[in-house]
Amino acid sequence: MITGTGQIRAPLTGAPPTYEEAMGLFTDIPPPPFEISILEERLPGVVTNQPGQETDEDIKWMPLPRIDPNSSCPYGLEYLLKLNGVRVKRERWRMFENRRYGVVNNIGEKIYVAADNGSFLYTVQDQLERHTFTIKRESYCLCYGITSECVVECPPGETTSFIIGSTGLCMSNIEITDKDKTGVLNIDAPLGCSFCEDEKLPVLAKKLPVAQIRRSYPDIPLSERFDYIITFPCELDVRMKAALIATAIKIDVDISEQRTRNNN
């Protein structure tokens, strides 16, 4: 009921109020108090990252070692001088993004991030975002698995080693050479044949084992995110250590491409 003063009151009769009268019944009722603190207590925190994805705050970088200014070590490879092993981990990436790999030391400190810029051109950076070395695939052939030749440049633009050979399911024959393509290291072992087991690839020098690349089976079943645990002598040349990191990335990419080709 609308009175002469313009105020809306409930009707005195038993008839239901009109829409306008019903809406007017609540005009003088103040809204309940809103306390943001109560809302925060009742609602969980906002999830801004996917589960299992590292944020910038979670990453612990390896401190930059101090070396002799007169050292011949290429800049960016000084992290590898006193290391006897690293782990290469394929990082999560969103759809339509290129591959990314993280390289960490034995205590989990990140050393490098290797990102594919397209057509197998990996730029490897440290925490200072210095381009320490690059990995490029020079040639590519699908005969007898995946046969390719990769060049490693430390620093970018200066060739230090080549990775030549074939990698596929249940096979691997890889030779790591110096800049003059003189053989230094060799890998010749079955690969991709075991199920739910780690695979060990001995790295030979003059037919003697000097290092190893272990392809660690993922904790999640049917996942393709393998880790590559590389062990080598501490006195091994840092350029060859970088070449072994590049070899692990090459193996992972070659096997993934081989499986994709077989599924198609």
Automatic annotation (TrEMBL):
Alphabetical list of InterPro entries matching this protein: Scramblase (IPR005552)
Cofactor(s) needed: Ca(2+)
Record's GO cellular component terms: plasma membrane
Presence of the UniProt keyword Calcium in the record: yes
Keyword Lipoprotein among record annotations: yes
Keywords of this entry: Calcium, Lipoprotein, Palmitate
Cross-referenced Pfam families: Scramblase
Gene Ontology terms for molecular function: phospholipid scramblase activity
Family of the protein in this entry: Belongs to the phospholipid scramblase family.
Chain's role: May mediate accelerated ATP-independent bidirectional transbilayer migration of phospholipids upon binding calcium ions that results in a loss of phospholipid asymmetry in the plasma membrane.
Protein name, as recorded: Phospholipid scramblase
Species of origin: Pristionchus mayeri
Highest classification ranks of the organism: Eukaryota, Metazoa, Ecdysozoa, Nematoda, Chromadorea
